[in-house]
## 1
Amino acid sequence: MEEHGILVADKDTEFLREVTDHFSDAGYQVETTHSAVHIISSILEKQTPVVLLGSDFDKKINLVELLQFLKKCNRHLAVILVSDEESLPVVKKVRKEGVFQYALRPVNEFKQSVGCTFSAA
């Protein structure tokens, strides 16, 4: 399998560990962060193809504005927004901003989404 890069951004360290273990074992190159600045610099420097973004990972920045900015940095970026709950208003907003998928935790609920991002390219 060709190695694909995934950036996982979330404030929950246990979730980051679980995602890293799962996707590393599946052959993906996984990078994790707690910082919006790190996400932006990673997208600008490496052109990371997929971002798994926790819906409330950084309270200092508006989620919709972050998504708009990320898509401006790389219009081909696949963002999978990961949340603990489904909120129709949030889903509508993030879909409008080009989110590839809105996924619910746990990891097994969205692991197929990651594979789909690479096959859609």
## 2
Amino acid sequence: MRQIQLRQQQQLQPVQQPARPSAHVPARAVSAQDVENETLDRAAALWTTRRIRSFFLLLEQPPRAAQR
């Protein structure tokens, strides 16, 4: 019975939305450094993805007999 009362009280309380941090922080201009950092981040992500893909392709290849 106590649990039902607690649930009803919780449902009656309004849900508060958390404040967005961006609403309190003034907007700043995008600098050349920001653009360069974004470009480097994308390049690193692409390079990492290719390395991972290459690794999985190597795992899928059938084992080769020793060629000596």
## 3
Amino acid sequence: MPITEWSESIQIAELQNDPSFAEDMASLVASYQRAADERKSGRADLRVRDAILDLRHVQFLNSSNIAQFLRVRKLAYLAGAQLRICSVSDRIWGILLATDLDRIFEFSEDVTTALAAMQMARGR
């Protein structure tokens, strides 16, 4: 997965279809797990980046992918990071609506809009 470190505090993850999707999400889980563990132990030395999940290349999601979204969301929250999903196709949007994920994630139309929303939310 190409992860672009857009700034010191924001990364952009350009997700792909499986099997890359599962590997890419596992990478995000690992980084947020480390940060959440650090924060829980009171050693918040590790700088955690907010993430924009760019889905423009994702054409399908299965139940495992949905579980990975939820895991990343939970760990990012525990680590003190924001997540924002963008560039969702109509097909993927239908899946997100059917699973009620549209109610728990933040969405933007594209990467540029997601960056602006994230920066405004953090007051940067």
## 4
Amino acid sequence: MIIQAVQALEQIDQSLNFFFERLREWYGLYFPELCDRIESHREFAEFVKNGERKEKSMGADLEDEDIEIMRSFADKILEMQNFRENLVDYIKENTEKLTPNLSNLINPLLVAKLISLAGSLKNLAMLPASTIQVLGAEPALFRHLRKGAKPPKHGIIFQDPRIHTAPKWQRGKIARSLASKIAIAAKLDYYSGEFDETLSENFDIRLDAIRKKYKEKPRKKK
């Protein structure tokens, strides 16, 4: 159920991005200045839905029925956005029940995505840390194997803020340490179900050590 929900979420995200862009292009015929004024897709859709009258604009003068259909389109997009938020809550709630150790270590939504990529919690529990580290980065890994490009240092776990907000020279080390803890947490959740809060605490200690040891950017070797 979690895997199906995650895959549905990915498809909804793709559709929402497409629909938001379509709404901007469509409404831009009527009120082009608004596209640059409002960056948030949701705020833009809410503006269109509420039917606020445009100010002086270089846009075309449209009939009421033209504007109304755009408002209706914006309303449907916002409904889908609200459903997406409900779906995320559903995924997080059920993932936390299934994987208490993983969900305590990383965001439950990221846990669900890892399970989806692995195919099941059992599969995830059987993967080595090195594979977990690059899950989701298969295209980059294939380029490395086929063309000799640089190997990926992390896959989808890059979404963890402790990795993507870290300096570039720390990210690989943090990702390797986090993947190791994820491998342990997945085994605990699948095989025993016992909760071990020290996993997260130990990772925080390791994270602090990496930040201190590699505080400065390393110099390039001549």
